[in-house]
Every structure is written in structure tokens, then in C-alpha cells.
Amino acid sequence: MSDKTYFITGGGTGGHIYPAVAVADSLADAGNNVYYVGNPENLEFEIIKEKGYEFLPVNVHGMPRKAGFSLISWFFQLGFSVLKSISYLNKYKPHAVFGTGGYVSAPILIACILKKVPYMMHDCDACPGLVTRKLAPYAKAVSLAFECAKASIKNDICYINGNPIRNKFKTLLKYEARKTLGLTNKLTVCIMGGSQGARAINDAAVSVLKTLTNKYDVQVIFQTGKKNFERVVEQLLKIYPEYENDKSLIVRSYFEDMVTVLKASDIAVSRAGSLSLSEIEASGIASILIPYPHAAADHQRKNARYMVEQGAALYLEDHDVNEKTLLESLTLLITDREKLAKLQGCAMKLAKYDGVEKIVGQLCNIIK
């Protein structure tokens, strides 16, 4: 269904943004008008600016968990953001709105309820977030990545679609991805702690980079997270001062194009957010998962254990991550290619490539 107008919303972290972008791209490719509603102070602003979609700003932040002045202030902030969202609905008159949860999507979805504009939600975790749980009853349809998430959703129209991932995961070849990054055709490890970075992973990774590239002749792509980049560089300069001349090593704060990074890789060291796992599966790579221990409802541990049960990953607890344990896990996969291939094969079996197509079809169906 083309030549319609859609609002897409979701932000704060890559887990909310990239599924939203995948759906936005599909709608735009079909000839629809797409606007993105997000917080201009967040990661989504940079990503959407790069994509070229018109960005509609709402200044809302995460809700304080304790009662007090900050909570009262937050409710005023939310109220102003809802009023601004209503003005966007009145001006652009979208046929439908698609939101991926998180506090950023709350104002426009509340505005949709008030203005009776149909909306659809997607939640990528085994344990849906607060915004999804509260606003799902009013949605025309709800998309979920996990079957077990249905128990938390009060809406009869629930679809289990997996996570929407970018079409490039289906088409990009490994050698093309490596060429784009200036790498050669040899075993490649991606180390990442999500868009924000992860100190435990970074500290352990810094200690093993030289061993990986020099002793094992492995290429490493290391995303530190923007907040942690300077600290990582300081550590690296002490441990491995010539790292910048190592052509087998790429160290950056953040990659706009994680599709190319993952498709270039054979092994990923990663947190266990649902979207990251979907993209790891779609790339057919083995993973060493280190779940974030303070994730809501402990969903990252649940995600990681599911991957291990399916034979697609190794597992380390955050408090157990250090130079020794990380290197042991990596060495196991680097030296035992049969084990590596088995994990990669199991990951690929879990991949769902049609999430975007299903969601776009369902989104079109909610338009009266």
C-alpha cells in the first residue's frame, strides 16, 4: 500500500531505533511518506538525519523510578510532548503510526489514543517494556519477537514476527563487507557492548587485542561505545602503543553501519539485547554473550540462555569477564573450527529474515 503517510517512533538505544528504521525504509521504498518522531538529544537523531527522513522532535526522557520533584517535572515534560505530538498529528495527518516501545515513543502513541489515530507497536524483548505493556491494549496490533512475551500483553491481536532487521542482512556478502572495512579475507572477531558500550567487555577486550591479532592472526572490529572511547584509547596506548598501525584491528566509538560489521565477522562478543541477537543470527555468526546484569526483568540473561540452549552461543556472566575468561572463550572458537561452524550453523537456523515484510503488511491492515 503506497502513497500513505506514516509516523515511525522509537529511540534511546539501537534496540529501539534499528527495528523502527527497518520498517521506515520498507515503507519509504514502497512510495510512502515517512516521518520519524524521536528525541533530538538521542542516538536516533543522528541516524535519522543520515537516512534523510524528516525528524519530528519530542523532548521526553526516561521516567524517574522514585517519587519526588523529578517525577512531577517528568510528568509536565511528558504532557508538553503529548501536546506537541498532537500538533504533529494535526499537521501531517498520518494514516498510521508504528512504535518500537521505550519512553521516546510514549508521547506520540498517547496522542494517537487521544486523536483516535491507529497505531501498531513492536517489542523486541522476551519481557516487554513498561511503555509497551501500558499502551498495547489501545493498539490496533502488537508485534512481538518472542512467543513468551504474549503473556505480558493485553491485546488479542498479537503477531510473533521476530525482530525487523534491515534488508542488507539478506544481500551483503562477507567478502564485500570485509572489503568495505578495509579488511582481508581471514577470521574476524567483532567486539561490541551495544550502542552505549560496556565497561566490563571493553576492559577485557583491551587486554586481549594484541594477542588476537599477533598470536592468532585474527582481525578484530572493536566498538567501544561513545562514552567509553577515550578511556579505551588511553588503556590501549599503555598496553599496545602501536595499535593504530595494526591493519588487523579497527577500533571505533560507534559504527553507523553495523550490518557491514556483523556480516564481515565470524565471531561476535556481545551483550544479549534481542535486536543484537537477531542481527547476529541473520549474519550466521557464532557469539560469546555477556548479558547486561541490570537489564529490566533480567531479559538479557533469558535471551542469552535461550541462544546457548539452541547451540548458537557461548555464555559469560558480566562479573566473570576478564582477560583470562574472554581469551579462553575466543581461543576455543578460533582453534576449534568445527565448534565454530556448529555455533554459526545453529545461529543461522534461528534467523528470521521476513520480520519487516510481516510487520509492514500488518501495519497497512490497521488503516481503515
TrEMBL record:
<feature type="binding site">
    <location>
        <begin position="13"/>
        <end position="15"/>
    </location>
    <ligand>
        <name>UDP-N-acetyl-alpha-D-glucosamine</name>
    </ligand>
</feature>
<dbReference type="GO" id="GO:0005886">
    <property type="term" value="C:plasma membrane"/>
</dbReference>
<comment type="similarity">
    <text>Belongs to the glycosyltransferase 28 family. MurG subfamily.</text>
</comment>
<comment type="pathway">
    <text>Cell wall biogenesis; peptidoglycan biosynthesis.</text>
</comment>
<keyword id="KW-0132">Cell division</keyword>
<dbReference type="GO" id="GO:0008360">
    <property type="term" value="P:regulation of cell shape"/>
</dbReference>
<dbReference type="GO" id="GO:0050511">
    <property type="term" value="F:undecaprenyldiphospho-muramoylpentapeptide beta-N-acetylglucosaminyltransferase activity"/>
</dbReference>
<feature type="binding site">
    <location>
        <position position="195"/>
    </location>
    <ligand>
        <name>UDP-N-acetyl-alpha-D-glucosamine</name>
    </ligand>
</feature>
<dbReference type="InterPro" id="IPR006009">
    <property type="entry name" value="GlcNAc_MurG"/>
</dbReference>
<feature type="binding site">
    <location>
        <position position="166"/>
    </location>
    <ligand>
        <name>UDP-N-acetyl-alpha-D-glucosamine</name>
    </ligand>
</feature>
<keyword id="KW-0808">Transferase</keyword>
<keyword id="KW-0133">Cell shape</keyword>
<feature type="domain" description="Glycosyltransferase family 28 N-terminal">
    <location>
        <begin position="7"/>
        <end position="142"/>
    </location>
</feature>
<dbReference type="GO" id="GO:0051301">
    <property type="term" value="P:cell division"/>
</dbReference>
<dbReference type="Pfam" id="PF04101">
    <property type="entry name" value="Glyco_tran_28_C"/>
</dbReference>
<dbReference type="GO" id="GO:0005975">
    <property type="term" value="P:carbohydrate metabolic process"/>
</dbReference>
<dbReference type="InterPro" id="IPR007235">
    <property type="entry name" value="Glyco_trans_28_C"/>
</dbReference>
<keyword id="KW-0961">Cell wall biogenesis/degradation</keyword>
<feature type="domain" description="Glycosyl transferase family 28 C-terminal">
    <location>
        <begin position="188"/>
        <end position="357"/>
    </location>
</feature>
<comment type="function">
    <text>Cell wall formation. Catalyzes the transfer of a GlcNAc subunit on undecaprenyl-pyrophosphoryl-MurNAc-pentapeptide (lipid intermediate I) to form undecaprenyl-pyrophosphoryl-MurNAc-(pentapeptide)GlcNAc (lipid intermediate II).</text>
</comment>
<keyword id="KW-0131">Cell cycle</keyword>
<keyword id="KW-0328">Glycosyltransferase</keyword>
<keyword id="KW-0472">Membrane</keyword>
<dbReference type="GO" id="GO:0071555">
    <property type="term" value="P:cell wall organization"/>
</dbReference>
<dbReference type="Pfam" id="PF03033">
    <property type="entry name" value="Glyco_transf_28"/>
</dbReference>
<protein>
    <recommendedName>
        <fullName>UDP-N-acetylglucosamine--N-acetylmuramyl-(pentapeptide) pyrophosphoryl-undecaprenol N-acetylglucosamine transferase</fullName>
        <ecNumber>2.4.1.227</ecNumber>
    </recommendedName>
</protein>
<feature type="binding site">
    <location>
        <position position="300"/>
    </location>
    <ligand>
        <name>UDP-N-acetyl-alpha-D-glucosamine</name>
    </ligand>
</feature>
<dbReference type="InterPro" id="IPR004276">
    <property type="entry name" value="GlycoTrans_28_N"/>
</dbReference>
<keyword id="KW-0573">Peptidoglycan synthesis</keyword>
<keyword id="KW-1003">Cell membrane</keyword>
<dbReference type="GO" id="GO:0009252">
    <property type="term" value="P:peptidoglycan biosynthetic process"/>
</dbReference>
